[in-house]
Amino acid sequence: MYSRIRREIPASAARSLLGLIPGRSAFVWVVAFSVSLNILLLVVPFYAIEVFDRVISSGSVETLVGLTIIAVIALVFSAAFDTLRSRLLSRFAVRFERSLAPIVLESMIVDATNRGDRAQDLAKVRELRTFLSSATIASLLDAPFLPAFIFILFFLHPWYGLIALVGTAVLLAMGIVSRWIARAEIAQASEAAQKTQITLDGIVRHSALVRAMGWTRGAIREFMDLNDQALSPVVRASERVYAIGAAARMVRTTLQVAAIGAGAWLVLQSEVLAGSLIASSILIARTLQPMEGLISARRALTSAHEAWKQVQTAAAPVLVREKRTLLPSPSGRIAVERVSYRIPTTPRPVLVGINFECPPSGIIVVIGPTGAGKSTLLRLMAGLERPSGGTIRLDDAALNNWDPDQLGQFVGYLPQEVQLLGGTVAEAIAGFDEHACDEDIVAAAILAQAHEMILSLPAGYQTEIGRDGNRLSGGQRQRIGLARAFFGDRKLILLDEPNANLDPDGEHALCSAIQRAKAGGATLVIVTHRPQLLTIADAVLLLRDGAQLAFGSPAEVLRLPVTSVAKPHVVRQGTESQKLAVGRTAR
Ligand SMILES: Nc1ncnc2c1ncn2[C@@H]1O[C@H](COP(=O)(O)OP(=O)(O)OP(=O)(O)O)[C@@H](O)[C@H]1O
C-alpha cells in the first residue's frame, strides 16, 4: 500500500532493482577486457627494456624486428579490447536506462506524495546511464592496476617506486583539497540553479501572461539576477579548482623529470641499465597521468551514488507495491464509510465523518459553501488522495484493494479545473488507453454533448489542442473533459462542477447527458453550486466546513431549515423502496 511505502528503501528492494537490469553478466567481460588491457599496457616499457638492454648491446636486427612485431600485435589487441569494453559498457548503460526508466516513471505516477521535483527522478536515471558509459567508469576500472604498476617500478629500482608512490599520494591529496574547496560553492550554485530553473519554467509556461501584464523586462531582470547568483559560485569554484589542477600538472611533470634524473644518476652509478630508465619514465607517466582522471572520477562516483540512491527511493513505490488480484467488473455501488481527511500542515481536518452509500446507477449531487470539502471528497473517491480515516468502497472492495489501472478503467473523473493532456481531441478523450477505438471516442463525445462542438473544430477529432488544451475555450475544455470522464466502461463518474462554464442550454444538455450515463449503468457523484442538477439527483449530500450536514433525497435535504443545516445532521431514512432509489447513509 502506498501509505506504507518507506522513504528509505529496504535492502531487498534495492537488490530487486538491480536484479531487474538485464545483461549484468557483461560485466565479467568488461573486467576481463580491463585486465587484458592493463597487461598489454606493459608491452611498451618492456619493449623499451628489451631494445635498450638487449638489441643495442647485441646489435641483432632480427630481434628488433621480432620484438617490434610482437609490440604492434599487442597494441592492436589492446585497441580492440578497449573498443569492445566501451561498446559493452555503452550497451549495458542503454539496457540500464530501458529497464529502470519505466519503473521510475510508473512510481512517479502511482506515488501520490509530493516529493520535490519528480521529473528529477527520471533525469537521475539518465545521469546514471551517462555515467555508466563515460570515460570515468573506464578509469575506475583501470584504477586497481595502479598498485601493480607501482610494484613493477619498485621491482625495477626502489627509487622509481618511491617517486611513483610519493607522486600518487601528493596528487591524491591535491584532488581531495580541490574537491573540498569547491564543495560549498557547488552546493550554493546548485541551490541557486534550482531557483533559476523554477523561475524560468514559470516565465516560459506563462509567457503570454507575462507579455500581457507588461512583465517582460521584469521577468528578464529576475532571471538574470538569479542566474548571476547561480553562476558566481561556479566561477569562483572553477577558478580555484583550475589553479589546483595547474599545480597538480606541475607536480606531475616535476616528478617525471625527477624520475628521469634519478634514473640517469642510477645508470651512472651502474645500478640500473639504460632500458629501465626509459621503462620507468613510461610507467611513472602511466601511473601519475590517470590520477587526474581518478580525482574527477571520485566526484562523478559520488554524484552517481547520490543518483542511485534517488533512483532507488523513486522506484520504491512500484518495487514494494503489493500485487493486487484483478476484481470482477463492479456494478457501481459506492460506500463512503466514516471518511476523514487531514493535511499535516493544517490543524483542522478537511473532511470528517463522511458517511453515505449509493446503489448502482444512482445520482448523488454534492452541495455546500466554498471550502466545504466537496472537491476533496471527489478526489478521495477518485483515488487521487487516500483518506486519513475510514474507507471508500466500490462494490464492497476498498479503493486501495483495487489494482489502480483496473480501477481507473471504471472510474471517470472530471476535476474542477479540467486538465487535458496535449495531443489531438481524440487523444485527450481516450488518454493513454491502448485499446481505445474511434467508436468509443465518438460515443463518449456524443454522450457528453461534445460531438457537434468537436466537429466544428478545424480538424474535428484530429484537432491539436495545444499544451494543456490551451487552444480551446474554457467551455470546450470542459466538454472534452466530460467526454473523457464518460469514455469507456465507466461505473462511477465523478464530476466536479461540470456546469460551471455552461449557459442554460448547455446545462440542460448536461442533465440529459448525465441521465443517459445513469441509464447506461453508471453511478454519478456531482459537485455543483447551481440548482439545475438537483432536479435530476437521486440523493443530495450537504457539506459544510468538512462535515456532513445532511444526506437524503433532494426534497428532504432542501426542506431542512437553514438553522438545522448549521449543525451536522443526517436525514432520517424513508421507505425501503426509497432507500434503493435514493441511496442511504452507510451503516
Ligand atoms: N492540498 C491542500 N492543502 C491545504 N489545504 C487544502 C488542500 N486541499 C484542500 N484544502 C483545504 O480544504 C478545504 C476544502 O477544500 P475543497 O477544495 O475541497 O473545497 P470545496 O468545497 O470544493 O470548495 P469550492 O466550492 O470553492 O470548490 C479548503 O479550506 C481548502 O483550503
TrEMBL record:
Listed CDD domains: ABCC_Protease_Secretion
UniProt entry keywords in alphabetical sequence: ATP-binding, Cell membrane, Hydrolase, Membrane, Nucleotide-binding, Protease, Transmembrane, Transmembrane helix, Transport
The keyword ATP-binding is annotated on this UniProt entry: yes
Family under the similarity heading: Belongs to the ABC transporter superfamily.
Transmembrane annotation, as ranges: 26-49, 61-81, 131-156, 162-182
Function: Involved in beta-(1-->2)glucan export. Transmembrane domains (TMD) form a pore in the inner membrane and the ATP-binding domain (NBD) is responsible for energy generation.
Domain ABC transmembrane type-1: start-end pairs: 28-303
One MF term in the entry's GO annotations: ATPase-coupled lipid transmembrane transporter activity
PROSITE patterns xrefs: ABC_TM1F, ABC_TRANSPORTER_1, ABC_TRANSPORTER_2
Alphabetical list of InterPro entries matching this protein: AAA+_ATPase, ABC1_TM_dom, ABC1_TM_sf, ABC_transporter-like_ATP-bd, ABC_transporter-like_CS, ATPase_T1SS_PrtD-like, P-loop_NTPase, Type_1_exporter
Protein name, as recorded: Protease
Subcellular localization, as worded in the UniProt entry: Cell membrane
Membrane topology, record value: Multi-pass membrane protein
GO cellular component: plasma membrane; type I protein secretion system complex
Domain ABC transporter: 334-570
Natural source organism: Bradyrhizobium retamae
Biological process per Gene Ontology, one example term: protein secretion by the type I secretion system
